[in-house]
Predict the structure of Metal-dependent phosphotriesterase family hydrolase.
Amino acid sequence: MCDAHDHLFLSSPRLPGQELRDASAATAELVAFREAGGGSVVQWTPYGLGRRAADLPLLSRATGVHIVAATGLHQAAHYAPELIDRLRNGLAHLFVAELTEGLATSGVRAGFIKVAGGFHALDAHARWTMTAAAEAHHATGAPIAVHLELGTGALDVLDLLCGELGVPPDRVILGHLNRSPDLMVHRQAAEAGAYLAFDGPSRANHATDWRMPDAVRALAEAGFGDRLLLGGDTTTAGARSVDGGPGMPYLLRRVRPRLELALGAALVERVLTVNPGLAFAVEW
């Protein structure tokens, strides 16, 4: 059972005082996830945001949960301008190195590339990072996972990555579609061949828990059950289950049974096992 989008470690100036830095809390969260039936977690924390790559193998061995690490770059607002300037001419090379050689000195190779769009648009930073991600994909075959700001811009992302830059659609994972429950856009993205991630349950300020079953049922009934992914997207310490929030176990404890009522148990099991295995597969 795979949580296809979550965070064990994350630090950003946009989340002051809410950083995920505590390794013991990350371990406890993984244990809680495993006890709920979880077996793997895809950490979408990219370069420069405190992903603590060297700790990931230790956590995985201690808890028995497989962890997939990311390279990539988030929106510009998450970084100091000088860091962006330093990466300006070597971003694709960085992504390739982290996919093939390892993250920093940890020896942990990234399994995918995480980038981000903007609200209903792709600014110059998004186009730059996605162009580098496409170059790294063509060099390695690694999938590209995209943060869609408030769930918007999915078709613009596909036009750029798949249309202009030649990335196969089944190597693109669109994140946060639950935040913009536009069933027509979801259908068009699925028809294009991308994977659609509904990630971030229980966020009261987003259209998540209460609309998500309708969105995924519409896609399943249209024949796109093999395109669906589910994730928790725990981004703050207070959102962890061990700190009183829903956390990673919520995905299996509450979201899974609710979706089984809408989709049936067999399809939900595929969404949590087979689909992420294919979406994040890489032939090294």
In short: The chain has eleven helices and nine strands. The chain has a mean pLDDT of 94. The longest strand covers residues 2-6. The two ends are 23 Å apart (CA to CA).
